UniProtKB/TrEMBL annotation:
Keywords: Calcium, Manganese, Metal-binding. Mn(2+) binds at residues 49, 81, 84. Belongs to the manganese catalase family. Binds 1 Ca(2+) ion per subunit. Binds 2 manganese ions per subunit. Ca(2+) binds at residue 72. InterPro entries: Ferritin-like, Ferritin-like_SF, Mn_catalase. This is Manganese containing catalase. Its cofactor is Ca(2+); Mn(2+). GO terms for molecular function: metal ion binding.
Length: 202
């Protein structure tokens, strides 16, 4: 099986906004539909890779004329989220679940992804602030799901995705510091991603 760096949407452009560490091979200990349904929340729930992709793309579109540097960053981060989405889709299928853009409610009803899940915003600063909040929410969800899953391969995948999300928080905080410093609230940054190595992986 090809590893995650040899297939799909992994491109040199992706690595500009990804944490510089290898992605693990996509595999599972055994088929487990319950885990597959759990990962659907990260894949296409309210706080999910699908929501992040659509939110960052929208922010990219509306900011491009006035803030081209920020728009480029948002497009770049969106590529990383697309890779997360792809890895989750492949994993969900290995677990025995169809990766449609939906989750299952507590009453076992399907709830499909909805465009109302994303934050559209009014200006640069409220959009980037919400993008930071969305990344923190994603990290929290992944941490909770790690605790619920007894599969070392899934835990490893989620941990690697978390590193990307923490790196995105760092990148978005840099935008806030450059353009929105008076509005930037104090935040504990002790849980951000570790410093990357000097060179990205080959």
């Amino acid at each position: 099986m090809a590893n995650a760096q040899e297939k799909g949407c992994v491109t040199p452009a992706l690595y500009r906004c990804a944490y510089p560490a290898p992605y693990p091979e996509i595999r599972v200990a055994r088929q487990n539909p319950a885990y597959g349904r759990l990962l659907l929340e990260d894949y296409a729930g309210v706080v999910s890779e699908t929501s992040a992709i659509m939110q960052y793309n929208y922010h990219h579109f509306v900011l491009e004329n006035q803030y081209s540097e920020v728009a480029d960053l948002l497009g770049c981060v969106s590529l990383v989220e697309m890779h997360h989405q792809e890895m989750l889709a492949e994993t969900i299928m290995m677990l025995g679940v169809d990766p449609r853009y939906r989750v299952f409610t507590y009453t076992n009803e399907e709830k499909y992804w909805d465009a109302s899940y994303i934050f559209y915003g009014n200006d640069l600063c409220d959009r980037i602030a919400m993008d930071i909040g969305s990344e923190w929410a994603a990290v929290t969800n992944y941490r909770v799901h790690q605790c619920m899953i007894d599969d070392p391969y899934l835990k490893e995948l989620l941990e690697r995705i978390i590193l990307d999300e923490l790196h995105h928080i760092t990148l978005f905080n840099q935008v806030m510091q450059k353009y929105c410093q008076p509005q930037l609230p104090h935040r504990d940054t002790s849980k951000t991603a570790p410093d990357p190595p000097d060179q990205p992986p080959k």
